Amino acid sequence: MNNEIDFRHAVNDMACSRITFDSDYIVVKADQRAYQFVYEEYTRFDKLVADDDVERFYRYIENEDAPSEQFVVVRMRRRDGVYRPCLIIVLRRAYPVNGTKHTDVELRDIVTLNARYKKMDLDVRKYRSIMGMLAEYFFEYNPSDGMFTFFCYRGYRADNIEKADIDEVLKRLIEEKHVDGDNIDKLYMLFEKIKSCEASFTVELETNIFRGGENYELMSFHGQTLYYDNELARVIGIASHVSRIGKATSGELSDDAAEKDSATGILNKKAMTDFVENKIRHFNETGRQEPFWLAICDIDYFKNVNDTYGHLFGDEVIYRFAQTIRTWVGDKGVVGRIGGDEFMIMLDGADDVTELRSILIGIREELEWAFQNKAPDYRFTTSIGVANYPKDADDYVRLFKIADKALYIAKEKGRDRFIIYDKELHGELEEEKEGAYAAHTCAELKPIAKAELASNLILLLTKAGRDVIPHVLDSIIENLNIHGITIYESDADGRIRTSMTAGRYNMSVGDISDIMDSRYLELFNANGINQIHNVKECEIHCPEMYDFWKDHEICSTLQFMIGSNEHVMGIVSFDIFGAHRRKWSENDVNTLYMIVKFIGNALES
């Protein structure tokens, strides 16, 4: 068995991966590192274990009384056929899922871990030496035991200035007058940010703690959270003399600080945009158009995260996602945050589309695993759109729009995926009159094709009734560029509740009886049609319904009433999500009106 590993590449090899299998050991989910370690497709996890180790493996997995810190070491077959010693740890054992039981395990390749340890040991020695050369101070907070430390490096050794419970340190700094005046409030603010484990923060104040109680000096404290194994491990930071970091007392940011996103530590929108634009300009001017990938990604339904878990947890998700992207991209590109939950990646170090896919899959899967302990009932996913320079475009604006179109298509197809733009598959970029991007997942059907579609769906409803309604809704979405469809039905108590949905709503659609008042019903014309190009038009007249549409990110809607205003039996709503509003054509209205009539008949039957 060959145990030799090049330390330079150890960090890119599989060290730790996560796998989920069912009670028959059939793999139901695995992260990208697991597939890289073993092989592209496999079904039985136990078949990868060496024959001499498999009984020991079974005993460990099936022992439900095993303590959580227990593990087993077995030999696992890699994708090249070589067996390597691996450490297996059960994360969640035999939990029920759809009538079977799933088990989550972490797989650690001991050979790679050993190589990585040696590399990290060398890195630690290197960075300690560098820190000893700096005239800077550092701080560390351990949230598990409340210990706080101020320290600096003298040569190769850490020298503690303060080390005690964080509340004791704060109390002593004030009592011993290491701060005074307005700086006391700033010190409280600094320690509150540290104790609350804010993802990233900066506080300036005057203190003499690093001067032995003499001469106050203006210091900038910059900190961030540090995670290990998906758990918050430390809050770490650096305390710098303001004059050393090039920051004037007027509060002007240095060039470096001005380029960083304060919440994540990666490039901000302006810096990221300037970097890509300058790169393209340089390539075009020199005639050396070296290819690179531009990717835009965001967190699916991020608003739900804030609404469900609060904004502090939302900030943590943003920070962790940024670090995940930065880790997977590494030195193969540059990462920036360009919006609330939107990020941009410039990838020029990927050898080919296979490596690109590997990186994107890794980002998706890392996010999905990241918060299993904190939010086990919520599935975190991301959608990513990718374009290539210069194949798809050789100017920044168009390249960005194509990547954005690919992101839009990824969302249209159900989110939790990446789309690498292909002109043959996805068509030309379409632009509205104002120049804003307008993506369409399918070509606009001609009137005669819409009539044919309506006839086929009506025939299907007539023959099969209610059972085929979900298929009819999916067909409408696919062919008529509708983003979401909801059918509301009146129950025995007369309340209007959601009966069926199709498409990708950002949250569940429930009971609308309380907001469907007389003012809302007045929006329907004599034919029972409510046609809204911009839902904001209803903000004053029907504020509750407007809030409902806004929460569900609906910008345009076309609704048909089943029954009458006096006796509403149901409503069918065709919705458009996002910011690109839709003007409903007469042909759209007539086509959907005919289909809805037969949906109503099927519901009644």
From TrEMBL:
One of its GO terms (molecular function) is diguanylate cyclase activity. It holds the Pfam family GGDEF. Residues 290-423 form the GGDEF domain. PANTHER family: DIGUANYLATE CYCLASE DGCM-RELATED, REGULATORY COMPONENTS OF SENSORY TRANSDUCTION SYSTEM. This is GGDEF domain-containing protein. It comes from Bacteroides pectinophilus CAG:437.
